[in-house]
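Dear Dr. H.,

I hope your travels went smoothly. While you were away I took the liberty of generating a structure for the chain from your last submission, since the lab meeting agenda had it listed for discussion. I wanted you to have the full record in hand beforehand rather than looking at slides cold. The sequence, exactly as received, is reproduced here:
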Amino acid sequence: MKTIKIACLVIMAVLFCIYLNAVNRAVLVHNSIEEIEARIGKLKLELIRIWGGDEEDDENKFFRNPISVAVDEKARLVYICDQHSHCVRVFKDSYEYVRTISQRGRGPGDSYLPGAITLSPGGDLIVLEPSGFRIQRFSPEGKSKQIFKFNRDILRWVGVTSKDELVVYNPAQTIRTGKLISILDRKGKTVKEIGTYHDKSKNTLESEKLFFSIDDGDNFYAANTRTPVIRKYSPEGTLSMAVTYDVLYEIPPVEISINSNGNEIKIIRAEENTDTVREKGGKKGLMIQRVKGKGKTKLGVCGAFGTDSRQRMYIVCRRRFLTEKEERAAYILWNSNKIIRENVDYDIVDKINDINRLVVFNPEGRVIAAANLETFCDGIYISENRLFIVDGYLYQRIIEYKMHFEN
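The corresponding predicted structure, in token form, is as follows:
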């Protein structure tokens, strides 16, 4: 009898483990190009206003590379990070200027080429300074409250949880640890690391770029720029879903799957170029030289990513790539002081209106709507039923739309 009881307990334990594995196993959801094309027109974009742009005469509303947007729905304020003006401009949602936060500098209350902003649950402004290797917290009125420094690592994204914890993407740290993002407490101490890094490159300049987002339920999202996949992680940091999608043009073959444990994705990519490596021996040792080939280059499939309060996912994917003539016409130089646009041929650029598409997925990862965009896009921000498209480099502006979804 005792042996039977032990055997029953063992069986129950095994079944419980199988149950937990099934519950926690991530799902892979694929969206075909036919499904996406069928949803074109299910999202209507109604233009509300254009923020900034070359025609803007008001200096407080003229931007020099607007790069990030944040909206305080309760206070009805819009924050715009203007990178090359080294500040954050604050407006009422009617586009009435309120104040400017920070100015060029390295001290408390200053900023230098800010790269991203977000808002804390209490209304504090969080400003990421990649070249300053720091994150600074400001009060809603613009007073510096706290500075986090990051040992010469260039950060690329910052978010904030409902518990007022910072969520940071540090590419160098990601390559060192293999984890995607870090969660920091109010004192700047790392309390958790989430996600797995899949790029084999050990160089942050050559590695695949990523977009991140966090929703109101503290779910984290990572979207790859040249691999058609979006990952969703639970607040505990486990992978819950991977969303894949087809694109309109040919890309190097890539296989995306869930690993055997059901807790991460696997990416197997075909060779993307014909670069070769030459090894030369000498008195000073081995020299490795990369020889540029004439094969396919690293093509981007995703140009922007965001989520909304309903846990819907938004990507801006490429409909096509610029021709050589269009690339020359849209050529921009920039340094730490300014963006140089004198070489841009706007007679050609103004006619380019077919390179981007907005695709929306529901919380289960299925495409529900899509709309072809007629503008360049460097980033997006979603606030309730409003969509902000950042067109910071070519036209120095942000386009605000009201979104209408159709069944």
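Two observations you may find useful: The longest strand covers residues 43-52. The domain at 27-320+355-405 is CATH 2.120.10.30 (Neuraminidase).

With kind regards,
E. W.
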